[in-house]
Amino acid sequence: MQKAERHPSLPCWKFPRWLAALAVLLLALLPIRGWASDFDTANQAYDQGKFADAKAGYEKVIESGAGSANVYYNLGNTEFRLDDAGHAILSYERALALTPRHPEALANLRLLREKNGSRLLPVSWNSRLAHLLTTNIWTVLVAVSGWIVLFGLVIIFTSRQADHFGLWLLTLLSVVVCAVASVSLWSMTRDQALAVITAKETEARLAPAESAGVAEALPAGSQVRVLSERGEWIYCELPGLGRGWVPEGALQHVRPVKS
Predict the structure, then answer these.
(1) Where are the domains of the chain?
(2) Positive or negative CA dihedral for 65, 66, 70, 76?
(3) Other CB atoms closer than 10 Å to residue 187's CB: what's the count?
(4) Where are the TPR repeats (predicted)?
(5) CATH assignment, 193-253
């Protein structure tokens, strides 16, 4: 019987782990370099007074998935320079949706609303509270405080130790935090229906037709809350506490924000 020939084994080259990790890191950084370059280009266009180019640049950054509060803030400034108050106010609102205490966006939004005569929906106390923090932070607070309550009650009712005063206090405090955070998240969910009038000036109608009577005049930047849709018309809660139909192309939702 003929024996199988033995061939000398060739050394197998292994891809170093550090090199693989470096490759993954570089691939992850490629999109960041791309949108950072677009952001810088848009900033340069703004500084040179090329506001249409700057607007296109900021929108490109947002479409790439890198929309931050500062990008929306810069976009709002550009739209203001282009005399587009409605979209500028929308961009400032979106900046604040990502960073509720953004000082420059707050200041510019207040000034532009006053200048334009934009009408606002009444703000409830829970909505004011909700906008102190972001959705992610409220979600974390609900989760953490909920787990503290759960484990606190388990320990209190299963432990033989008599004195649980400190643990009771922590559990009750966590219940309060969980309740406040839950209400805030509910308020933010309701704000998903918030929209801004982006047209120069719009009239809300009593029925979904141009021939219907006027329910309320809405300058650019006015807030409405979307209730339902019918064809090319949106049924909204209006700043004057009434309700009316607004043309679909005259408004845009503030949330969800591309980020």
Answers:
(1) 19-116, 126-191, 193-253
(2) negative
(3) 18
(4) 69-102
(5) 2.30.30.40
What does the pLDDT read at residue 1?
40
The answer to whether residue 129 scores a pLDDT higher than 60 is: yes
Give the highest mean pLDDT range of 150-154, 184-188, 245-249: 245-249
Token pair listed for 109: 């939004």
Instruction: Round to whole Å and give the CA distance between 59 and 38.
Output: 10
Classify burial at 136, counting beta carbons within 10 Å of its beta carbon; exposed 0-12, middle 13-18, buried 19 or more. exposed
- Give the pLDDT band of residue 26 (cuts 50, 70, 90): very low
Q: What global pTM score does this model have?
A: 0.75
HEC profile for the chain? CCCCCCCCCCCCCCCCHHHHHHHHHHHHHHHHHHHHHHHHHHHHHHHCCCHHHHHHHHHHHHHCCCCCHHHHHHHHHHHHHCCCHHHHHHHHHHHHHHCCCCHHHHHHHHHHHHHHCCCCCCCCHHHHHHCCCCHHHHHHHHHHHHHHHHHHHHHHHHCCCCCCHHHHHHHHHHHHHHHHHHHHHHHHHHHHHEEEECCCEEEEECCCCCCCCEEEEEECCCEEEEEEEECCEEEEECCCCCEEEEEHHHEEECCCCCC
Q: 19-116: what fold?
A: 1.25.40
